[in-house]
Amino acid sequence: MTHERPSAESGPPIARRMMLSMLGAGAAGLAAAPLVRDGWERLLETASQNDPTGLSGLLPNPGGFRYYSVAAAVPRKSAADYRLEIGGLVERPGTYTLDGLRALPQTRVVGEARCTDGWRVPDVPFSGVLLSHLLDAAGVRPEGKAVRFTCFDGVYSESLTLEQARRADVLVALDMLDAPVTHAHGGPVRLYVAPMYFYKSAKWLSGISVTDQVVPGYWEEYGYDVDGWLDPAA
Ligand SMILES: Nc1nc2c(c(=O)[nH]1)N[C@H]1C(S)=C(S)[C@@H](COP(=O)(O)O)O[C@H]1N2
Ligand SMILES: [Mo]
């Protein structure tokens, strides 16, 4: 299933011209010289933000990832202004800073990033804090049955059952590819749900809320499986 929504009006000509010129520049740039990864990610973001057609998802990225954001523009959060809020059906709601998350025990999970659009990147290292650790610290109340994730892009959301959320391969990730999660990849903090399709791994994570039932996430409202297992038999 591809990431298609009921499409908006086709964009203003200037945005379309820009996309086409960027597609050309991208191919030329890749052939001519090695690219600085972060510079390329910034270009992808810029293209995407001026891209009502969604074509920027076709731009090549050296790592094999595609830049995805359902929000046109996403604010940047520095280490100083990033906050993660934990609340809902918990005994001790709280707020973490980035330093606060870094100070907690860190777990490394190497897994696949597989999008429903057909691309996949194997063996991607993620590290950060086990979601189960944050849930335990907050103290899930007996009525708590699921977890809802919200993002500082202001649009995206995701969900897991409490059982899924407590798995040892579900992280609140601070590092991806053994470096701090870049803005393009959802930094400074994203979710990584290793056993599921990458749409479950919410980028720009800003809220974790324990709920009494699963609240379907952004793509799930468009028909995606709420349980996004890569291997349903496992
Ligand atoms: N906040 C937010 N998180 C998101 C998305 C998004 O659009 N917004 N897209 C999802 C999808 S469909 C995929 S495949 C991955 C893409 O992650 P990447 O941009 O690091 O490749 O992020 C997931 N998390
Ligand atoms: Mo995706």
From TrEMBL:
<feature type="domain" description="Oxidoreductase molybdopterin-binding">
    <location>
        <begin position="72"/>
        <end position="219"/>
    </location>
</feature>
<protein>
    <submittedName>
        <fullName>DMSO/TMAO reductase YedYZ molybdopterin-dependent catalytic subunit</fullName>
    </submittedName>
</protein>
<dbReference type="Pfam" id="PF00174">
    <property type="entry name" value="Oxidored_molyb"/>
</dbReference>
<dbReference type="InterPro" id="IPR000572">
    <property type="entry name" value="OxRdtase_Mopterin-bd_dom"/>
</dbReference>
<dbReference type="InterPro" id="IPR036374">
    <property type="entry name" value="OxRdtase_Mopterin-bd_sf"/>
</dbReference>
